[in-house]
User: Fold these one by one.
Assistant:
Number 1:
Amino acid sequence: MQISIPTHPSGLTAEWLSLVLGAPVTDVAVTRIGEDEGFTGGALYRLTMTGWDNLVAKLSPLDPVLRAQFAKSNAREVTFYNSLSDGLPVPNCAYAASDPATGTSIVLLQDMAHARAVPFIEGAGSTDVEAVLRTFARIHAAWWNAPALSGLSGAGILSEFSLADPWARYPSALAELLPDITLPDSFVALADHAALNLDHIYDHMQERGPLTVLHRDPQLDNILFDPDGQAILLDWQMMGKGRGIWDVAYFLISSVPAQRRRDNEATWVALYHDALLAHGVTGYSYRVCWQDYLRSVLSKIFVTVVATTELDNRSDHKRAWRKTDLTRLLAFIEDHGLTPDIWNFDYD
């Protein structure tokens, strides 16, 4: 029997849960979590059931346009929890399914209500940053150059999301959303080059060299800290393969206040690199790791531009989120004097 996938919380019934959990559920209370947190239109619901531990249901977007837009992303998360998550610092998954015909998906996860969240706009402190980097190293080392990576998307994600068109619309979208921000020439030069050479850069960063599983959206809204201080990664919709430092750069650029990053980033990149070595990774020098770190600025340029032009940023919370994200990115570019030459792979 094919089990339907709910598109609305009203479908999270005791009968449906009994089918997917394989044991009777006699009653369930469904409560929305985070009314204005996500950008992609999906929703989270806490399921409270007599005789069961609480679960969190993650539904695909109710809006059919958004549901189609993020169908492949949501299917990737289902693949991650069904095939790649065992033993990693992620929530336990009770059930995950997607339907390519309709774009619907659902993931039932361990309720992490006991874990601590850090607001994105506040930014991560040093202890939490180090916990995140250790989690990255553990996940990346576990899948370092693994044969199973051949089935994962690297540069293939570009078939779903382009940069050229969003970048062409970005200045006007930014002027409407954040009229007090003027883009510096350095950012414009990097984005111009990236929009014209995206396939080439992604080929080098996510199809060649030492590859591993990437989260590809590891910002603070997608991270919790358990009572032992371990960082737990959520929201694996953008999951794929590539150079592990891509996740490190994405996190440090977006989720750490600029001055704190400036003061510590060399130490933090070294901590990540040392942790990889401690987990058994070989053949990846610190020099290459640092070079890849700077090149991974593309991770934030790409997502910042696409998210500003394609997603709903109208609420005060999301507008403040976008401003914080962009100002931290601009500071990173200025701090390192980055130019398109950073993506000159000829001298590798």
Number 2:
Amino acid sequence: MSLTKNQVASVAYTLKNAEGQIIDQADKEHPMAFIHGVGGMIPGFEKALEGKNIGDSFSLVVEPAEAYGERNDALTQDVERAMFAGVPDDQLVAGAQFQAQTDAGVEVITIAGVDGDMIKIDANHPLAGETLHFDVEMLDIRAATEEELAHGHVHAAGGCGSDKSEKNESNGCCGGGSCGGEGS
């Protein structure tokens, strides 16, 4: 079976940056499962997986434009420490991440630096501007259920609340926690 839109793909992968450092990975025992073609993955990754078959192993390089975009300096700014009222000083360090309500909705911001009462924040995705190097193995392909398509994510085997459900933290449901409640 070849992977096409609205099918669930399960993959093992290693993601490295241009310097060869491992950024993320999923192995055969804890694969990543996602619904193909619904926008849940970066475009370059989905394009490369289109038409692949179970057992295929391959490497791919995804340029920033097909991943998390180029870095945008307009997404960095200096704000006063008071913007982080209630956050302990020891948590206001470079690299710390916070959720912030913006005009575009809730976004993750990263503290890029601290200089006295001024904090430089960066709303770029942490991998913006990075060329991504993947080694991928296609482990399984199956049709997505109507419920999964309606919710936009993969559910554990047997579905949420099922006696057959496997609580798998990597698949975004049941063990991961957003499925089965309101808004899922």
Number 3:
Amino acid sequence: MLRASEESPRMFDSDFIDFFSRTPWWTVPLLWVPGTIAFFAIGLTQGVPVGLGLVGWLAGFVLWTFTEYSLHRTAFHWVPDASWGERYHFFVHGVHHKWHWDRYRLVMPPAVSLSLCVVFGGLFRLAFGPTWMWPLFSGFVFGYCVYDCMHYAEHHLKVKWKWFVRLRAHHMSHHHNQKYMELRYGVSTMFWDRVFGTMEPSA
């Protein structure tokens, strides 16, 4: 049972709400790998050619990496100048920085990711139309799935692959090195940190 413990401290007074504040990492691929396949299949049934669909899928994946970076840099690190600002930040992202060892608060709860899926799906429909949105959205959602699984792995797995070791060090510096706490926002890639100059402090 996913109950409060030393490893996973209590966030809410209500046992019911606190229980659902925890999410095992495997719920992400369980929910979104089939979702990714389904979204791409919908595009094919609506006449999207396979080759162009794969190009769209890749574009959607890249778009996710930019969205991941942008959200982390802005919304996740934003503390509104209001009486509720600190509390807002804690629930959105501060909890992860405070309890970075908590393996059950490293991925989005399904209720949140499903709600965001509806919002982003609507935006994709407006931007790309009711047919071409599907392969792009499929790649975008798969990018999210990779991001959340990578985030878990960076905190709790000791993979020896050199690329992963560098990426893990990149993310850990964001958590544990005061110099990088407002830098190095990429989790699944360092690319956008390099593009926007957030790899190193300004001289």
